[in-house]
TrEMBL record:
Transmembrane portions of the chain: none
Organism of this sequence: Pseudomonas linyingensis
Lineage: Bacteria, Pseudomonadati, Pseudomonadota, Gammaproteobacteria, Pseudomonadales
Record CDD domains: DsbA_FrnE (cd03024)
Protein origin, superkingdom: Bacteria
Keywords (A to Z) from UniProt: Isomerase
GO MF annotations in UniProt: isomerase activity; oxidoreductase activity
UniProt domain DSBA-like thioredoxin: residue ranges: 7-208
InterPro entries the UniProt entry points to: DSBA-like_thioredoxin_dom, Thioredoxin-like_sf
Pfam family, one: DSBA
Protein name: Predicted dithiol-disulfide isomerase, DsbA family
């Protein structure tokens, strides 16, 4: 008899810890499926726009973080911390390639529309491509033309995306708007057990097992 596990992930595309957390989640899921192949997992991705007041054209990346952290030394220390955590998760984040801190409203609207229209595989491919566009390729996720090309590469028709790519900087307010207070990434397992922050594979796997055990007790 199969069992089910529903996982919700709250994230923003500009958050490196969200990309790192996604990789750790993938590892945890691989271990879960190896040890408990009868568990059917469903993933639900929720966009949270951390900077809703960001100008539509974004801001220079280096300038944004210098103002945010106060000094070049603080920026270098933060980026070194992120690179170290990313490397441990099998990722290479090249901050030198990122020129702009973008407004992510359209990127979130795009993923929301894609989730309604596409298959789970298409949504996963789009999510992966959007993160790679920003953290690996230095592309501007605030540019509707860039987003359109990425979506088309993932099999979505341009005519289906028109309403989501506004290009006006209007904030993205999904059902998850209030989740920004919890920080991202934020994981919810079976709508009962929550884990905040970019946690290790072991922590996420432990949360999955705890959620499954709780469901089993309730069904007994």
């Amino acid at each position: 008899m199969s069992r089910s596990l529903h996982i919700e992930v709250f994230f923003d595309f500009i958050c490196p810890w969200c990309l790192i957390g996604m990789r750790q989640l993938e590892r945890a899921l691989t271990e879960l499926r190896a040890s408990q192949p009868d568990v059917e997992v469903s993933l639900e991705w929720h966009g949270v726009q951390l900077l809703p007041d960001m100008p539509v054209a974004g801001l220079p990346f280096a300038e944004f973080y210098l103002r945010r952290l106060g000094s070049e030394q603080a920026v270098q220390m933060r980026q070194a911390q992120v690179r170290e955590a990313a490397a441990a998760a099998g990722l290479n984040i090249d901050f030198a390639r990122i020129l702009r801190m973008p407004n992510t409203a359209d990127a979130h609207r795009l993923l929301q529309r894609a989730t309604a229209l596409g298959s789970a595989e298409q949504v996963e491919a789009l999510l992966e491509r959007l993160f790679a566009a920003y953290f690996h390729n230095g592309e501007n996720l605030g540019d509707p033309a860039t987003l359109r090309v990425i979506a088309e590469d993932c099999g979505f028709a341009p005519v289906d995306l028109v309403d989501s790519l506004r290009g006006d900087g209007s904030p993205f307010f999904g059902d998850e708007a209030g989740m920004a207070a919890n920080g991202v990434p934020y994981f919810v397992f079976d709508r009962r057990l929550a884990v905040s922050g970019s946690q290790s594979t072991e922590v996420l796997l432990g949360a999955m097992n705890a959620a499954l055990a709780r469901s089993a007790r309730q069904q007994a």
